Amino acid sequence: MEKRRLSFWQIWNMSFGFLGIQFGMALTGGFMSRIFQTLGAEIDDIPILWIAAPLTGLLVQPIIGYMSDRTWSPKLGRRRPYFLIGAILSSIALCLVPHSPVLWIAAGFLWILDASINISMEPFRALVADKLPDSQRSYGFVVQTLIIGIGTWVASSLPWIVSQLGVSDSADAGVIPMSVKVAFVIGAAVFLISILYTVFTTSEYPPEDMEAFEKEKQKKNQFFSDIIKNIGNMPITMKKLGLIQFFSWFAFFTMWSLANPALTEHVFNTPAPIESAFDMTNAAEAQAYDLANTSFQKSSNQVGKYMGIYGLSSMVFALLLVLYTSRRRINRKYVHMISLILGGIGFISMYFIPSPEYLVLSFTLIGFSWGSILSMPYAMLSSSVDPKKMGVIMGIFNMFIVIPQIIAAIGGINFIAGLFGDETINAMVVAGSSLIIAGLCNFLITNKKAITYQTEH
């Protein structure tokens, strides 16, 4: 089927729901470790508490991709039913997460939240490939990245913004501050509204052969065999991209799980106080704990604000690519390589910066890599696979995102960072090294159609 070229605003509308998805991801990525620490988690235990996120992605995304390939609703189409279900569940979970009374409940809510986000997220990747001709694929994924950048920037700054408006950062021991609770409620509202916007402003192409589609849908018990078959027949370009994704997402999982403890400790000199180290029956020590905890919470707001810069710089990166790819072709391979190496330098620089203001530069460089990670691999992949299997292929490709995160969560970060020393900031050095390796792995990509596609006008 010949797909018509879409205008910028049509691509914007179909991608706008990712604003909400990114609000959910940025709030969890920027503040979940802070919630864990507030509830008493030790720093070495934080990565394993995050394991819910990649595990749910490993299970949910291939299933949702497979199901959405085999779904057709005359009113909602193929992908939009999953956007809507995921948005409703995610919004509820976002409201509940910061009210967790104990650590295991917070970890459980993270599991539910990430599963819900994944229900919405995977079909969005497939929708770009469904709707756009090859000549607009890079453009479409870059527009999506632009929206993701906006979401990352605003959502990462929300607790700080809310705090500036007068909402308290102080709270009793083991209680999440009100500024975080309000930020998560705002995130929930944005998630639902932005998904609804895409659902109501975007249509989808029906299956080319409805009779054959219905016959295929009636076949039973094919899920696991189809998944295994598609994994076995994985294109060589997809395998090479998978290696790049492995090192890229190991780096970003390290940031999401450990940037807050690393930076509050190493850059702001306000580590999370350990309640057991204070005699809370003594008024002076209880006051000292409250002061230390408030300092930690305020520094955590600052870390979130600085982390938002990587969303802002990824947005600028995406905007430049939007303007360029709307008229010209790009070499996706070298764009991705250079971006990842710059991000690696940004992570490593955190070890050496003399004061917090320099985090602006660190996260700006990281944003270049983030913008590329969210667009270039998907553009390269979508030009190399069967469009009829786009949903399940995108779901399988997600394995290369979640497996490195699982390895990092079950001890990979702690082991490798421990080789550099005991300080938590060493985890950021590990993240930077991993991102540089990912960049160099781009030399493996040789498929010309994946590397570049001429945009025609």
TrEMBL record:
It is found in: Membrane. It is a multi-pass membrane protein. Pfam families: MFS_1. Residues 237-457 form the Major facilitator superfamily (MFS) profile domain. The keyword Calcium does not apply. Keywords: Membrane, Transmembrane, Transmembrane helix, Transport. The chain crosses the membrane at residues 12-36, 48-68, 80-97, 103-121, 141-162, 182-200, 241-259, 306-325, 334-353, 359-380, 392-419, 425-445. Its main location: membrane. This is SLC45 family MFS transporter. It comes from Flavivirga algicola.
